[in-house]
Write a structure and sequence with these properties.
five-stranded antiparallel sheet, 183 residues, 1 helix, Immunoglobulin-like, mainly beta, 8 strands, disordered N terminus
Length: 183
Amino acid sequence: MSKWIGVTILAGAVAVMTLGCSQQPSGTAAVIEDKTYTVTPASVKVKAGIVTGEVTEMKVTERVEKGSGRLVSPAKLTGTLKVKNSSKDQAVRLVGGKIQYIDAQGQPIKLEATRNEPTIKFATYGSSERLDPGQEATQSLDVEFPAEALKAKKLKEIRLELAYIPSPYKEETVNFTVVIGGQ
């Protein structure tokens, strides 16, 4: 009997150590939410030389801690850039792009020192790195946005600078005479 009492006490001690000494959650995790700012207009037509297109679905989003309002992730501008080679006789190789945020006085709004300048790197479109006349390409935008531009009446316009290399494009036809064996 004393053997069973010893086993019971040992089992109880193990249970207390296992359950009583385990780490309990020290509190609830902070809830992070996206704070979205609308951009009006949400889409605009663009033209840079022979490259035309549209920027659509624009919005600015930052991530904040719910309740405290503490900034978790700084603001970013997102959207979609659709471009088209509107030339009839030149192919285009899109090199990259740069976005600037312009204030009411026509001056660029600077990003915070710890953030990167908003640039666009174009992926390969289709099976080639060039857009022939009439071809289109789509590129996602996900670039840094300055906190200063979120202030009321601070941001006047967004400037998109596109870099591309045009090259002559020609389609020509060549006919040649052939004979099929024995004819």
